[in-house]
């Protein structure tokens, strides 16, 4: 078996970041693994397009956006859709989504059941207002609010125990990408974020790979680079869980996904949807992402 470090050395020898972070693949390698080449297991995964509204919208804007997203989602087939909204708007957005197929998500939670935790929200609160998903470990929670891998792990386990689905976010910083540590960072965040769980829980976990240098910057990993990292993540599940779990786990890409690049990203065999930031605040842009053109 290979060591965790070897893939990073291979990446360093074959990939180089340009100033615009457009990363290529070496000559002589297949340019990209396409979804159509993935076989039955690849095709069985239903992609998830999730909008992360972050700290945006007021009440009226949130309700209007939710209704517009629901209308766009009704046009789509073969894809799951969700919006992760600011906690004050969970109930009105749930009402706005009623009768449609868009799932509701919260952006964070605390791992305690209840008590003196001012400003925190529990998974039971989130569940009680009709949410389906909760984000865990988004890079902004890690960087701005100091969530450690241990904190993220407690949140993931609490989300699952509460009967909700977790979207576990992982991804490397710019310096880690440039020093060839991408695979090591992903492996650490996966092993620590999923610690204490088992294969059975994976049916309720979505992985969102978000290269931190591409979040909100307008910079996006090329489909080739995103696919390479997604393929590594799937191989991690083969080695640490099973081929069955690896074939079934949904791995989203996040990082400046928009209506111009979604088709090429979604053509990749191991990219199973997107966690969308800025573009999810515009119903037409997010609608185009949800209704991506299958290649």
Q: In words, what does this structure look like?
A:
Strands 1-2-3-4-5-6-7-8 form an eight-stranded parallel β-barrel, surrounded by six helices. Residues 1-31 and 36-42 have low confidence and may be disordered. β1 (48-52), α3 (59-73) and β2 form a beta-alpha-beta unit. The chain contains 13 helices and eight strands. With 295 residues, it is α/β, with parallel strands linked by helices. α3 (59-73) runs parallel beside α4 (90-97) and α3 (59-73) packs parallel to α13. The radius of gyration is 18 Å and the shape is globular.
Distinctive features:
13 helices; 8 strands; disordered N terminus
Distance between the termini: 34 Å
- Walk across the major sheet and give the strand order: 1-2-3-4-5-6-7-8
Please tally the helical runs, counting DSSP H or I stretches of 4 or more residues: 13
On the 0 to 100 scale, the average pLDDT is 88
Portion of residues in helices? 40-55%
- Helix-strand pattern, N to C? HHEHEHEHEHHEHHEHHEHEH
The overall strand count is 8
**What best-fitting shape do the alpha-carbon axes yield?**
globular
Structural class: alpha/beta
Report the radius of gyration as a whole number of Å.
18 Å
Residue share in β-strands = 5-15%
Low-confidence stretches: 1-31, 36-42
Q: How does the major sheet shape up?
A: 8 strands, parallel, barrel
